[in-house]
Design goal:
The complex is a heterodimer. By secondary structure, chain A is mostly helical. Chain A is about 70% helix and about 0% strand. The longest helix of chain A is centred in the middle third of the chain and has 30 residues. The chains are: A mainly alpha, B mainly alpha.
């Protein structure tokens, strides 16, 4: 071995901030290599993928619109991941939040916005929580692994969505397309900045991130979550209820994912279709890690991953590339991030000098 | 019942079960060494698209299968370097592998959507394959079906009866002890992870070269995750893997058959069920099976590799 890892003995503060930056740089370099392998000019491709989406007048507002669901879900997941509760079914919880909210919007299109909007928010959160309650209950009561159960429920949620938009909720005037009727004016999230699509959900994402930060750093619950993740035995000796924290993690994660789904259908899509999410629930996992499982960091993570969506669309239009490049960029970014994180706990050293008389 | 229907039913179930069995057998070996690779779905997808592309360009199904296996191993190598050398979190890295594999396979496969290939040939032994009933089931399958069955038996023997299998289990149950005795923990885990990747690549090839002979984005539809659940279902015992894979193959085939028929005949009542509810059956069954197995905490703790998912770093 040319290089070896030497334990630092404590977490490096420097590297916990530098690691995401190094990972981003390595991802950009790797993307350039992938672009050139695909026969594209790497520099031009990078420009199209990472910079061109922001140069148009609507670029920056669109970035925030795309980042909003990622931040909402990412904040919830980061709290759970800290406690080693691996809710990876946020995509399904997001879908259920959208379905619950849409059900109300379609049933009472004429209700005044002042009543309908809060009710939709509440139902969105409830929808996500309902879906997350299943893995929580199965984990606490029956010891079933929440990774697999929450993921399986994502497939079920998607099938439920398709059933609704092709069956009972299909718009009779939609020319047979699998979609519901458009939401009424009062079921549409108000636009906050005139001339853009920046809706109430963007504001909610920032409020939630700040609230998450306060809970994590200033509350007993936040402390318990951190202890459970870093030292499960200590948490047990201290008498923290693991079951309670599992429930809490999944309820917060599910509720926020449901809220993200509600805002997405009410703020940007304005109806239910089978394509209400380009994988936000999975991308938010990367957002949470890129944000150092810290609610404020998640804001930055959300903005960067939102750029990868816009970049994928730009690459599709300007370079004729499949927008799967978004997924590759996201996967590579998480790879590098996880690899660079080794530097937080270890330092790289050269080969061990030969010691006379053996080790 | 008509004999031809029974034969076609058994053949269909075997076809649906084989990719699950291949992937789950690979993952079982990986997990027995103490490594939890959640990237099964991603490795299968990359195996599927690479196997398809190689078959299309070389015209040889065998080469397609070989390349699919190598592709699965390459994916597993990424995982191994990150988790075993760089000590990254295994759960997160496995998820990254699936996200990456989904994107990569979609990118590579975008130009192949809508094309069909010959696929891998089925065994054709004169006389034997034509024997009624037994012939097509025992002597008329493609190579990967036999390989999947042989692999389960071989792995069952390897883990229980061979010295190397014992070492592998020791590494998975107590990496510190295995290291102290002098076994190369990291190397063994690398090999087990690569084996798992190769098997997932084969499972992917089965999807694009035998189950269907075309490529479609996300064509594994969660089979990689079901394979992961099967390992828990089997409580890390290969023989039970066989039972689980064929049980789920049966459920998957049943759900397809009900969708094709459009309704279920239940004691003379025609029950029309929306096809999406029927499609959801395998996923719901997976949850149900996980619950039934996992509620016995002692059994899980006795059988799960004790170091599953825990990073190993030789101190000093």
């Amino acid at each position: 071995m040319l290089l070896r890892l030497e334990p630092r003995g404590q977490r490096s503060r420097l590297w916990s901030y530098a690691s995401p930056l190094l990972a981003l740089a390595l991802t950009v370099v790797t993307s350039a290599v992938i672009f050139s392998v695909l026969g594209k000019d790497p520099l031009e491709s990078l420009y199209v993928f990472l910079i061109s989406p922001l140069t148009s007048a609507t670029g920056l507002p669109e970035l925030f619109v795309k980042a909003a669901p990622l931040i909402l879900i990412g904040v919830g997941l980061s709290l759970g991941f800290r406690a080693n509760v691996w809710n990876i079914g946020a995509e399904g919880q997001y879908t259920l939040g959208a379905i619950f909210a849409a059900g109300l919007a379609l049933r009472y299109p004429d209700a005044p916005a002042i009543v309908l909007m809060p009710a939709m928010i509440a139902l969105g959160v409830l929808g996500g929580m309902t879906w997350a309650a299943i893995p929580a209950y199965l984990r606490v009561r029956w010891n079933a692994n929440e990774i697999l159960t929450s993921l399986m429920l994502t497939y079920v949620a998607q099938l439920l969505l398709i059933y609704l938009v092709t069956g009972p909720w299909r718009d009779p005037e939609g020319y047979g397309f699998p979609q519901t009727a458009l939401f009424s004016e009062s079921a549409t999230s108000p636009v906050l900045v005139a001339g853009t699509r920046v809706h109430l959900g963007v504001l909610a994402a920032f409020i939630v991130a700040i609230a998450g930060w306060v809970v994590l750093t200033r509350s007993v619950i936040g402390f318990q979550l951190r202890v459970l993740g870093q030292a499960p035995r200590a948490a047990r000796f201290a008498g923290f209820s693991q079951d309670k924290l599992i429930w809490l993690s999944l309820m917060v994660g599910g509720g926020l994912a449901g809220l993200a789904g509600m805002f997405e259908v009410s703020g940007t899509v304005n109806q239910l279709t089978p394509q209400i999410s380009p994988g936000y629930g999975f991308t938010a996992i990367i957002v949470a890690f890129l944000g150092r499982l810290h609610p404020i960091g998640v804001i930055f993570g959300g903005l960067i991953l939102a750029l990868s969506y816009l970049g994928g669309e730009a690459a599709q239009i300007d370079l004729g590339m499949p927008n799967a490049v978004t997924g590759i960029f996201q996967g590579v970014l998480l790879f590098f991030l996880l690899a660079c994180d080794v530097l937080i706990l270890y330092r790289l050293r050269g080969p061990r000098p030969a010691v006379a008389g053996g080790a | 019942m008509d004999q031809a229907i029974v034969v076609s039913f058994i053949l269909s179930v075997m076809t649906a079960s084989t990719p699950l069995l291949l992937a789950a057998t690979g993952e079982l070996v990986t997990e027995k060494s103490g490594v939890l690779n959640l990237g099964v779905e991603g490795m299968m997808l990359v195996g599927a698209v690479v196997g398809f592309a190689a078959t299309l360009h070389t015209g040889s199904g065998l080469l397609g299968v070989v390349f699919a296996m190598l592709a699965g191993m390459a994916m597993a190598l990424i995982f191994a370097v990150l988790t075993l050398t760089f000590l990254a979190n295994q759960v997160a890295t496995g998820l990254a592998l699936t996200i990456f594999g989904t994107g990569l396979s979609a990118l590579v496969g975008s130009s192949y959507v809508g094309t069909a290939v010959q696929g891998i040939p089925k065994l054709q032994i004169p006389v034997l394959s034509d024997v009624p009933f037994v012939g097509p089931i025992v002597f008329g399958q493609d190579g990967l079906v036999y390989l999947s069955l042989a692999a389960v038996v071989a792995i069952a023997w390897f883990l229980r009866r061979s010295h190397r299998g014992l070492v592998l289990r020791a590494v998975g149950d107590s990496h510190d002890a295995a290291h102290a005795i002098g076994y190369p923990v990291i190397l063994i885990r690398y090999l087990a992870t690569l084996f798992g990747g190769g098997m997932c690549g084969l499972a992917g090839a089965y999807m694009s070269l035998a189950y269907s002979t075309s490529w479609a984005e996300n064509m594994t539809a969660g089979r990689g995750w079901i394979a992961l659940a099967l390992v828990v279902f089997a409580t890390w015992r290969p023989v039970w893997l066989l039972v689980g894979a064929y049980l789920f193959g049966g459920i998957m085939y049943g759900s397809l058959a009900i969708q094709a028929a459009g309704a279920i005949d239940l004691f003379g009542y025609r029950l029309v069920v929306p096809s999406q509810f029927v499609s959801a059956l395998p996923y719901i069954a997976t949850i149900a099976v996980l619950v039934v197995i996992s509620r016995d905490r002692v059994k899980i703790r006795l059988n799960a590799p004790a170091c599953l998912g825990r990073p190993f770093h030789a101190a000093g």
